Amino acid sequence: AVTRGNVAGALRALPEEQRRAVVLAVLGGRTAREVAEIEAVPLGTAKTRIRLGLRRLRAELAGEVDGG
User: What are the C-alpha distances in Å from 18 to residues 55, 62, 67, 68?
Assistant: First the structure.
């Protein structure tokens, strides 16, 4: 089972920019446009950071759940 500690550890493993984007979007409920404004980056960059961050987070958590 995925625990809060697993998620926190997986978040810490992300690059800083991706971590901030994921936290703002998922935990903060911000849109990609809002993340772009907060981070002062183009919208496409914010979307990419969110997408890559979530992909890495899922992979990290899947590895932990699968025993990896």
Answer: 10, 18, 25, 22
Which of 48, 61, 49 lies closest to 13, judged by CA? 61
DSSP for 22-67, written as a single string: HIIIIIS---HHHHHHHHTS-HHHHHHHHHHHHHHHHHHHHHHHTT
Smallest CA-to-CA distance from 16 within 63, 49, 55 is with 49
How far is the first Cα of the chain from the last one, in angstroms, to the nearest whole number? 13
The answer on pLDDT for 27 being more than 70 is yes
Rounded to two decimals, the pTM is: 0.87
User: What is the token pair recorded at 5?
Assistant: 């500690």
